[in-house]
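ZP: hey, is the flavin-adenine dinucleotide complex queued? I don't see it on the tracker
AM: it wasn't, my bad. submitting now with these inputs:
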Amino acid sequence: MTLGDAVTRAEVVIVGAGHGGAQAALALRQNKFAGSILMIGEEPELPYERPPLSKDYLSGEKSFDRILIRPADFWAERGIEILTDARVVTVDPAAKTIGLEDGRVVAFDELVWATGGHARRLSCDGGDHVGVHSVRNRADVDRMISELAATTRVAVIGGGYIGLEAAAVLVKLGKQVTVLEAQDRVLARVAGVTLSRLYEAEHRAHGVDMRLGVQVRCIEGADGRATGVRLMDGGFVAAEMVIVGIGIVPAVEPLLAAGARGGNGVAVDEHGRTSLPHIWAIGDCALHANAFADGLPIRLESVQNANDMATTVAKAITGQPAPYHAVPWFWSNQYDLKLQTVGLSAGHDEEVLRGDPAARSFSIVYLKQGRVVAIDAVNAVKDFVQGKALVAMGATADVAELGNSTIALRDLVARMPR
Ligand code: FAD
């Protein structure tokens, strides 16, 4: 495998050197795959952890070296070749080749597509002003950090996890932060109303100006540099820095152009197989039927999902197929609140509060037609760990007992019929 040749070849080619790509390479070796592995990523860096970008990398508490998934020599020692700064733009399923932006061609026996997504950009005027930032890659965050010294006011567009984490870091760094959320509550896509209200109150208590139900008209600027956000109602939020946290667009164009089934992501089966032969997809870009979403096709954006799908695909490629059926989980750190969430709360019809938010340790259990579908545990590791089994079995626990934090979730699990 020589990258200078006209056509390079590797038995397994992984496109995307992020969480899923890195884990796919690791899991192949763990499953005794002895063939050649080439991982291709468009970023200049070796695989690194993305979650710290809106947390302790942004705050300066962690250096880049500390967020590398593995040190450089780790990959070399395992014969995993990594090509950085290389963007894959075409896929030819019949020839079993991919084409890079610079014209190089790489042939594969098996192709693992692990490209995540690109930050969704503002479509309004001024979205490309200097000072307007996404939080997806190291380069995005390095740009933000380089502007911090000259920044007093920050507007965060989007009250999802990433926007709120960035808001928490920036207000701690002494910036005046305004969060602009179009819905009537933050975290509307991922959590219930109780958690949303608690997080809104937490941010306000730290001095964040939290504006709900507001629509952005445009980013205003002077000499190409952002000066603030103009709202649809005419209001204006002055800001030298604007952070846009409005989700991602899955990076699947080359695969869809090659004929793979999909739309909002590329469709895969329970082993991560796309509709194209010998082509697999994992992580944020993979649209899969998830048992915890009533079997509906969804994309999950979490490290857990990227890692577990990668392991699933590695097993299938090495002839030990085991379908993907992992319980989704996720975490978010804001201020001293460490949220761990298990399951998917979308579509829940009941919320049960365990513990006391004022004591800064509590959980919210989500039920759907009497079954436990998700738990948001805030500074409550035991509930997260013990409650996972309740979510996995879709348990029908007693609401009064669920709400009684003196009863360990482990005890409720023990009583469930097997
Ligand atoms: P990624 O890790 O995004 O990797 C994809 C890689 O592929 C990228 O490097 C991309 O540049 C590259 N690529 C894309 N297209 C091409 C191409 N055509 N050619 C070559 N390379 C390409 N999850 C959690 O569970 N907990 C958290 O607290 C959390 N916090 C987060 C905070 C931030 C700021 C962000 C951005 C994400 C966070 N996530 C968190 C989500 C988590 O990081 C993602 O779900 C995870 O990284 C998905 O892994 P992936 O391999 O699918 O994609």
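AM: back. The longest strand covers residues 7-15.
ZP: great, adding it to the tracker
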